[in-house]
Structure prediction request, 339 residues.
Amino acid sequence: MKNRFLVFNNPFEILVKERNLDVKVPDDTVLVESFCSGISAGTELLVYRGEIPEGMLLDPLIPEFSETFSYPTQYGYATVGEVIDVGANVDNKWIGRRVFSFNPHESHFFTSVKDLIEIPDGIGYEDAIFLPNMETALNLIMDGLPVVGENVAVIGQGVVGLLTTSLLKDFPLNNLVTFDMILKRRQISLELGASHSFGSFEEPIMNSIFNKEYKGFDLVYEISGNPASLNNAIDITGYNGRVVIGSWYGSKMSNLSLGDSFHRSRINILTSQVSTIDPKFSGRWTKERRFSVAWDMLRSVKPSRLITHQYPIEEAIVAYDHLHQKSDDILQVILKYDT
Prediction:
């Protein structure tokens, strides 16, 4: 059996390789045949562009990414497929089960059952690849703690930003305002429940609402991936408001302007990262509980509608270049593994 897999050889250099898989599955593992995998336009593009600091841990809590980063490397964390064989110490009932794995992009892989998440009934493969994104959106909500009647802003309407908007719209907020430079994303944002969506922080309608009603947002999420947007987030946050940073900028620096009114504003700036759960919840919440809620949200939102491009793994370089160019028509890109 041939396994096709993707390697980040160097910045902007992607290779698709093949290797033979042993016929016999190791005793304590299963063999998964991938159906598709989702490309992250956040962390994964940092890897593609060479914007990950050499020597850092990508994610010490995910076994596949617990080693220090260097090229060449395999990366990716949203693969779905079917268990097609099991080792001697694994129950045969696993054969045929549809599963999610935080596994890099490859057509087949061996893994332990404990590193798989079974896809619940009623959720298709192309919705299931959004599990990490939805878990991230849930984590953002839990860290931001939106309050009834608040004015909330979300900067960045990529996949995670849109999913965050889709969750916030069910809160009884006063206003839910989103920002993105791309018109198509703003339109989707409104469809998902935003009350307003702007392409600029200087638009007349935005300034009118901001000056007359908001006096600063109560809660602002920065999920654009652009370090310059953090200043915008601070600028539109009101006295004693909260800024939640969901973006990871990699090696890109943020030049913050903390003079003027910031010193007296008592604005709270906090980071939100999905690998851990805020200690104030961890007595009752586990990763498993959060995954369970994420599956429910995926069943409700059906985010597969955010998939705009599909490529066979052999054309992965085209997929990454398309994302890198930031085309207005692109949102979620997936790789397919037709056999």
Summary: The CA atoms of residues 7 and 74 lie 5 Å apart. The chain is about 25% helix and 25% strand.
